[in-house]
Each structure stands twice: as C-alpha cells, then as structure tokens.
Amino acid sequence: MLAPYLPILLLFALATGFAVFSVGIAPFTGPRRYNKAKLDFYECGIEPTPQPMGPSRFPVKYYLTAMLFIVFDIEIIFLYPYAVANKALGLFGLVEIILFVATVFVAYAYVWRRGGLDWD
Amino acid sequence: MHEVLLAAGPLRHGTVPLGEAIAFWVLGPIALAGAIGMVLLRNAVHSALSLVATMGCLGAFYLIQQGPFLGLVQIIVYTGAIMILFLFVLMIVGRDASDSLVETLRGQRWAAALLGVGFALLVAIGIGRAVSPVTPTDLNSPNAGGNNVHSIAALLFTRYLFAFELTSALLIVAAVGAMVLAHVEREGPRPSQKRLARERIRSGRPQPLPGPGVLSQHNAIGTPALLPDGSVARESVMVGSMESQEERQALPTPSAGEGGFE
Amino acid sequence: MTHLLLAAGNTAVSTPSVSYHALAPIFIVLGAAMLGVLVEAAVPRAERFTVQLMVTIVGLVAALVVVGLLHGTRTTTPSPTGNDAFFAGSLSIDGVGLFLQGTVLALALVAALLVSERSVDVGSPIVASAAVVVGSADDRRLTTADRVQTEVFPLMLFAVSGMLIFPIANNLILMFVALEVLSLPLYLMAGLARRRRLLSQEASLKYFLLGAFASAFFLYGLALLYGYADTVDLPGIFTAQQTSGKSDVLLYTGLALLLVGLLFKASVAPFHNWTVDVYVGAPTPVTAFMASCTKVAAFGAILRVLFVGFSSAEWNWRPVIWAVAIASMVVGAVLGLTQTDIKRILAYSSIAHAGFILVGMVAITKQSTASVMFYVLTYGFTTLAAFGMLMLVRDPDGEATQLARWSGLARKSPVVATVMTVLLLSMAGIPLTSGFTGKFYVFRAAWDTAGPLVVIALLSSAVAAFFYLRIVVMMFFAEPPVDSPTIAIPGWAASVALTVGVVVTIVLGVFPQPVIDLASKASYFTG
User: Fold this and answer.
1) CB distance A4–C6 less than 8 Å?
2) For residue B34, which of B54, B155, C108, C383 is within the disulfide window of CB 3.0 to 4.6 Å?
3) Would you tell me how many other CB atoms lie within 10 Å of the CB of residue C149?
4) Is the Cβ of C46 closer than 8 Å to some Cβ of chain A?
5) Hey, what long-range contacts does C140-148 have (CB within 8 A, 24 or more apart)?
C-alpha cells in the first residue's frame, strides 16, 4: 500500500544525503576565515527586506497577499476532485463547480477592483 | 521486497502492517514533539517551525492511512497556512521583540495547565477504553482501482453538496476580511509614470540612493556606506523602517579601522 | 503514485435531487451578500452606502417573505436518487427551522437599520476604514469623515445566511460550515467600531481566538460521534444509539464536546468569557445584531442536536443542561450586579437570559420547543432595542455607557428614559411585557420535569431584576451629572428599528397568543 510512495521516499533520502554530505564535508575541505558578515542574514545578495530596525514590523500588505493566496489555494483544492471525476459527475457536477468557481470569482473581482493586487 | 514489507497481510484486530508501524513510531514522536515545542519554545519563529514539523507528520499519517488526497492536501494547504503563520509571527512579534507575558490573573497559567492536562487525560482514557474493542477497518473498497479522489468527489457532489458550495461563501468572507483589515485604499488617482519621473528629476536627486555599507565586518543595512571621500552616507540606510531622524543619527558609524574594503 | 490520485473513475455518480424552493431564503440572502461584495467592487464610494443598504433590506425582506410562503413545509434536502447509497438530507426544512429562520431574518432586518443609522454619530457607528492604523493622522482625519466601511453590510448578510443554515442543518459537517459562515463575519464586524477602535480590535481578536478554540471542540466532538455512529447525520446518530455496539463513551464524549462548541456561540456560562468584552468592544449596532440573531441561531442548533439527534439519550444530557443553565443564570445575575457600565450590564443580562432559555430545554416536548422558540423571539427584539438605545445617549467622544452618566436622564429626555424603562422591565420579566410572557411559557414547559430548576430560575431572575431596576431608579430619581450627556435624535432608520423593538416588546407582553399559537404549530422537526 505504501509502495507507490517509494520513489518519493528515495528522493527524500537522496536529497537529505546530499545536503548532509555537502554541509558535513565543507569544514574539512574549505578555508576557514570567519568574520561577522559571514554570520549575518543572507538574502540572495540583496539587502534583507524591510529590516526591522528597532521596534518596526513587517508591513501588513504581506498578510493580505498571503491570505489571498490561501483563499485561491483552497479553491483549487476543491477543483481537483471535480477534475478527476468530471466524467462521472456529468452535467450536474459541471453546474455545481461553475457555481462554486463563480462565487469565489466574486471575491476575486472585489479584491482586484479595490486594488488588493497592486503592490505599492 | 518492499511490497512484502509495507503491506504485510490484511488488517486484523490488534495487528498493524510492519511498514505502517515503523512509519507511525518514527513520525508519531516527531509530531508530538513538534506540537509540544510549538507551545513551549520561547522564540516565535522556532515555535512556528515546530508546527510545520507536526503538520508534515500529520500529512504523512493521512498517506499511510490510505488517504493520499487528504495527505497531499494537508501538505499543500499548510504550505500556505504556515506562511500566514510566519507572517503573523513576524508582524506581531517583530524580530527581536522580547515577549512580555505579564499574567493579569495570578496563577491562571498553572490552573490552565492543570485543567488542560486533566481534560487531556479524561479524553485520552475515555477514548482509549472506548476504541480498544473496536475492529479497525480499511479504505480498500472506496480506494479500489485508484478511486480515492473519485470517491471523495462523489461524496462532495452528493451528500455534502451544500457544505461544499457553502465553503465558497467562507472563502469570500476570508478575502473580504483580509481586505477590510489589511488594505488601506489609495486616496486619489494613481500617479502616472510621467509624473513620477518628473518628480524624481525635479527632486534634485535623480540617481538612486547609495547602497548600505556592505563591509567585511557587517552587511546589515543598519550600517551606512562610506562615500568616496570617506564621509558617512546617512541616506544609504533605509528610511522607511526608521521612525525619526534621531534614530538615523544614532546609527553605528563605521570607524576607520573596519571601514576599508579589503 | 500517479494512479492513486489520477485514476478517472468510470462509475457514474447519480445526482441528488435538491428542492431548491425550500432553500430559496438561504439562496436569496447569499445572493444579496455576493451582490453586496460586487457593489463594493463596482459602485463608486459616494453611492455605496445607499446601494448597500438597499441590497441588504431588499434581500432580507424577500427572504422573509419566502420563509412565510414556505410555512408548513416538511422536507429534507438534498436527497439521493437512483441506485445511490442511502443518505439523509443534510438540511431539514421544518416548522422549527422556518420559525427560527423567520425570527433571524426579522431581527437582522431591524439590526441592519441600526447599523445604517447615520444621524447620531458623524458618518456612522461603523469605522471609516478599518485598516488605517489607530491614532495615525489618517485615522484622526477619518474619525470625523462621512466615509463608512460599507463592507459591513455584505458581511452581515453572510452572517445571516450562516444563521439561516445553522438551525436547519441536519448534518454535523454542514452545521460546522454554517457555524463558520456565521462566525467569521461576526469576528470581523466586532472590530469595526468608529470610536474606541483599539478596544474594538481587541474584542475582535479575543472573539476570533476563543471562537476558533470553540470550533475545535465542536470538530473533535463531531469526529468522535462519527466514530460512534459511522455517520454525521443527526437522524443517523439517533438510529445508531439503538443499533451501534460501540462504547457509549464515544457517544457521550462526542456530545459533550459538540455542546461546548454550541454553548460557546450561545454565550452560556461557563463558556461565556468572551461575551462581555466582545459586546462592549463591538460597535453597538453590531452588538445588538450579535446578541439577538446569534442567540436565535445557536439555540436553534442546540435544540435540533438535542431533540433530533439525542432525544433517546435525554436522561444523560439533562443534568448537563441543568448545570449550565444554573451556572449561566447565576453568573449573569451576580456579576451583572457588580457592573457600572450599562453595556456590560446588558452583556451579563444576555448570559443570564441564555440560562433562562436553556431551562426550556430540559424536557423534550412540543410545548418546550415552542416556548424556547417564543423566548428567543421576544428576547431578540427587546435586546436589539435596548442596545440600540445606548446609541442615543452620547458624550463628545462617543456613547456614554457609564451608569453614572445615565442618572437623571428622565429630566433631560423623558421619552428615552421611558422607552429604556419598558425594555429593562421586559428583561426583568415584569408582567405586560414580552419578557414576562417568554419566561412564563419557558418555566411552565419546564415545571413538570424540572421544578427545582424553575425555582432557581425564578430566584435568579429576581436578583437580575434588581440591576435592571437600579438603572430605572437612577434614570428617574437621581440628580443628573453636571455635564450631562447629550441625547442624539435618531434618523429614520434607528427610529424605525427602536419603534419596532419596543412595539414588539409591548404587544407580545399584552397579546402574545397569536405568536404562541404559531410557535406551537411550528414546533415539529423532520429528519
């Protein structure tokens, strides 16, 4: 019963092994010259995004984007069973899923028109 | 060989296939430790990470218990949900805020812990006794021929039709709520590209601000850069996150010793 | 792996038959709510308020009319067709359900009028923009601006649609989704007050966190009941109690946890902790909406769960109902005595009233069902109007809810003082008000099976009467404060709402028989 997951498990094991190996071998092969900068946060070379200097916090617009992501994420989850079983569900299923998608589309129209998708 | 190991015989009362047992006893403690860690860890980010571990393990449990769709949905949705959680943590707590948990009602933490443990024991013992004579069942018939998702769809569109459709109302409310609480509308029209460019040229500083001090000792953007003449470029640090001019003035200044680009 | 998730089933699913006409009230309200969201998207800000108000009123009135047309319906839907496996309909449209739906819609209509009141405060009691940081320059500017966060109307309609489904849900999963549909907008609406915004936002957060916790209890109970009965349909759970060979521990633990979630929504002690802070922090018209409509829906759901799903386990849950009813009445009455803020007093009074309503549920009879239905109706209108009255007595920085500020109010405005007195007397259960008739029928229905409980209820209503009468005495016989609060003149919307509330309170006190007859006639379940 777990057999179908074996490739995934193998991939996990491979990835873990690779990560452990490369991190583990680095201290022995690389030069060691530490300073403060090397222990600092690293974000792909750009400056760390809105650095909370003192008491400031992350802007709330990140929350909006994340919340909208979840809303449409969950919508897609419901589309999946329909897509798999659409033949068996027939016209009735089509009507119901269109109803569902159209309803969530109302939320999309609202967010879009009110500028929730603009990043500025 | 794995066929034999992972699916050793039909499900009988009191026996669990070996593969399932191994997975359970490996993942179960991790899930539990994650849950306990989420509550006990002081650092909010570590706390959120523990929850990720727990959720991942739960997803794996669903997979083991013949619910592949549910297991994957758990992982997919919680990727997003955990993201929200992190944002909450970072927004509400800030990176270095020390938590100030002042007890307004004295002794409430102890009382809550006592009652919580009592409740957990009550439920655990009750359920333990209640389900021990029950014969476990499997999902072989709804899952037969890879019908797992199909069976879910059949239920979703018949018996739970209305609950399913109603979920969309829930999603609308969630989106509207996020907008109401977190989106400040722009007043007036959006500035055009032309206007922005014109303003920039007229501001007296058309070029971008200098980058922060990326020094060998320090690359945090709290450190201002040095200009070619050796003077400190105060405008090189982010203004947006700083409350006032005083805070900018109070920034650490690179000294001659650590200032060089080695 | 792929064949696990992608195999396309070929067995056709026979489509269930849905009786759409019986669900029309729900569809109308949901449709109006979605229309409201589209209005937010499409209509310019200046016209939004008017359009939203029209959509809300028309939607609620239309749904109310349809509920009236549906009277006498007995149906469950959706039902299986063809060779499908048997399943009970997840919604049962019956007398109790329709009566409670009608009550929710009527109360929501009045509450919507209170929400739309724009004369007593600059703009509205609803905040101009909830996302603006409290105390910022924008916030100070918007406090006196005419702008309103008009999303409150669609949110309210969504909450109402949840409340329409909650008492007719015959299936626990649907009941859970309905619970969330009614709760989520309420969490948001609690945070929309124009004045004292931080308190309002704190109320919203508290309500959300505790509400999520209560939902978790409900879900846990649902899972255990599924383990016991192999179904989440209430009739199925009822049948399983006769046939299931499984341990009763699952059944009773499941029911207990389920009840925690439901009693939380109905703000019954000991699950009442959120009530007072949330009622005080929320905008007053929203508080009125929560105190009336949520209670109707929550007690409707409790009624259905206990009377349909667990009627044969009556002997097991009756002591629990006794205990929480007594706790609720005592907590409400005793803590209400110590308060110095009228909004808090009314909040504690709503906890006490939740206890009185539960008294009507100790016996499973047609009479007790009808008495509970009648009580939530009378209490809903009275509490709506009482919270509405709080909007009228104002200080420069908002409503003057301190008890001391109300002293001597009768000299300044005899009308306000008199109306408030009628409402308070009704809450105290003085004869010739709806509060008396409601209590009378509930206590009479419970007398045969639970005499001592009725005695306790009478005692605690005597204690509670003291703090209602204290307000009355203060209004009429105390000296007014030096800088006495101003009395705002309500606009048409609030005037209509308050008039309806007071008229219903008096009429149902003097001439309750037609509504009682209606409730008795409607006190049947299908499922």
Assistant:
1) no
2) B54
3) 24
4) no
5) C143/C194, C143/C195, C146/C122, C147/C45, C147/C123, C148/C49, C148/C118, C148/C123, C148/C124
Give domain A3-113's CATH number out of 1.10.390.10, 1.10.10.60, 1.20.58.1610, 1.10.3210.10: 1.20.58.1610
Its ipTM equals: 0.92
Residue C56 tokens read as 């809300």
The answer to whether the CB atoms of C5 and B68 lie below 8 A apart is yes
CB A71 within 8 A of CB B171: yes
Distance from CA of A15 to the nearest CA of B (A): 17
B146-155 per-position pLDDT tens digit: 788 888 988 8
DSSP-derived letter for residue C307 is: I
Q: Give domain limits for chain B.
A: 1-93, 207-255
**DSSP letter, residue A46:** B
Residue C40 has pLDDT above 50, yes or no: yes
Whether chain A has a CB inside 8 Å of the CB on C37: the answer is yes
CATH 1.10.3720.10 for the B1-93 domain, yes or no: no
Q: Do residue A60 and residue C131 have CB atoms under 8 angstroms apart?
A: yes
Domain residue ranges of chain A, discontinuous segments joined by +: 3-113
Q: What's the first-to-final CA gap in chain A, in angstroms? A: 50
Bridge partners of residue B111, in order along the sequence: none
Which of A7, A90, A114 shows the shortest C-beta gap to C1?
A: A7
Interface residues of A toward C, Cβ cutoff 8 Å, are 4-5, 7-8, 60, 84-85, 87-90, 92-93, 103, 106-107, 109-110, 112-114
Two tokens at A44? Answer: 């792909």
Taking chain A (120 residues) in consecutive chunks of 10 residues, what is each chunk's mean pLDDT?
77 94 88 69 51 53 82 90 88 92 94 86
Question: Residue type at C450?
Answer: A
For chains B and C, count residue pairs whose Cβ atoms are closer than 8 Å: 140
The number of beta carbons lying within 10 Å of the beta carbon of residue C310 is 22
How far is B190 from C396, CA to CA, in rounded Å?
37
**Secondary element (H or E) of residue B198:** helix B193-202
Name the strand (E) or helix (H) holding C386: helix C366-390
Task: Indicate the SS3 state at residue B1.
Answer: coil
The contacts of residue C493 (CB under 8 Å, 6+ apart) are C113, C114, C116, C117, C118
pTM (predicted TM-score): 0.89
Question: Which residue of chain C has the CA closest to B158?
Answer: C16
